[in-house]
Amino acid sequence: MLGLVACDRAPAAEAPEAPAPARAENPQPDSAEPEAPEPEPAPEPRGVPGGGPDPSTLDGSASASIGSPTEGHLASSVPLPTSGPGYVFNPRKDPSRRYGTWELVRAIIDASAAAHETHPGNTLVVGDLSLAAGGDINGHASHRAGRDVDVMFYLQNPDGTPFDAKAIPIEPDGTGVDYKDLTTADDDVHVRIDVPRTWAFIGALVGDERNHVGRIFVVEHVRTMLLEEGKRVGADKAVLERVGHLMCQPKFPHDDHMHIRLFCSPDDITAGCLDTAPIFPWHKKFLKSAGVKASLAGARSTPRPKLTSTKDAAQKKRDEVGAFDPAVDGFLERRKAWAKKPKTGRKYCR
Q1: What DSSP letter does each residue of 50-66 carry, written as one string?
Q2: What is the third-level CATH fold of 62-175+189-296?
Q3: Domain layout of the chain by residue ranges
Q4: pTM given for the model
Q5: ω into residue 172 within 30 of 0, thus cis?
Q6: 191-234: per-residue pLDDT in tens?
Q7: What would the pLDDT profile of 176-189 be if each residue is shown by its tens digit?
Q8: What is the rounded CA–CA span in Å between residue 7 and residue 78?
Q9: Which residues contact 267 (CB under 8 A, 6 or more apart)?
Q10: Cβ atoms of 83 and 90 closer than 8 Å
Q11: CB count, 10 Å around CB of 270?
Q12: Which residues pair with 178 in a beta bridge?
């Protein structure tokens, strides 16, 4: 549908030939000065896609994240423009869910632009951030304080051409299937993760010292693919080490997208922003240089939203449509092997 925006307009009809100008009855002598042409109107300023301020004109004072990612809110926020160099806010999502801290919005814009510069030809699809005032947001246990964002993997068709990204689970071999009608294989669309571009985005995000990334939730086998790609392209060792610590698979597998969380900014810490563990050594050093110390959120005091598990979601869909196509059943059986949180033994990801 995005392509139709530019392609569904009818071609303009050719303009009729202009008639010859009428001859003036009293022509001016050659020495007469011609009338000064009227000044052309000044061009209208370019708007920000989706409306709102241009994030490049703002700073950290434009937003304030209060409380924790699971129980906090936003005292003020910045909307992510619905599109920019190398990215688009998911057109299937409600645009009221694209608000975050200025730090998060800037980080998305800059990292996607950096990936686009080195790997043009595919687009990052950005999912939910938070509501304008934060707080409860349907379908999420966090995303309440403007520091969380869901990002789709860059995807490709089997022939390597770009595929408009959506939430398609990626298997350990890097492939995935958009099953669409779950009762038949006739409309199945096969894809694969675009590892080089996905790494380019993550490498740019974590490699930018202004971005204080606290966590990247992603399935373990995609984590492995991305780190291998970082090594293959000779990424900075410090960036590779940080990405390795930041990436973890939580209870929900996150095999169809990445969930990125930023730490509280120093100003937001002073205003009451709460972080979640772990606080990495390099982040402690940064906070010390800023004259603040992280405050950690305690145990949750409000009921945790009941979210649909992968198993429950499959059963609900089965109840709606009836028997699944054997290919779908096969995928669900394979998914059991990676859907549970793995025991990695890593210091920051247990």
Answers
A1: TSS--GGG--GGG-EEE
A2: Muramoyl-pentapeptide Carboxypeptidase; domain 2 (3.30.1380)
A3: 62-175+189-296
A4: 0.86
A5: no
A6: 999 999 999 999 999 999 999 999 999 999 999 999 999 999 99
A7: 999 999 999 999 99
A8: 31
A9: 60, 61, 64
A10: no
A11: 13
A12: 189
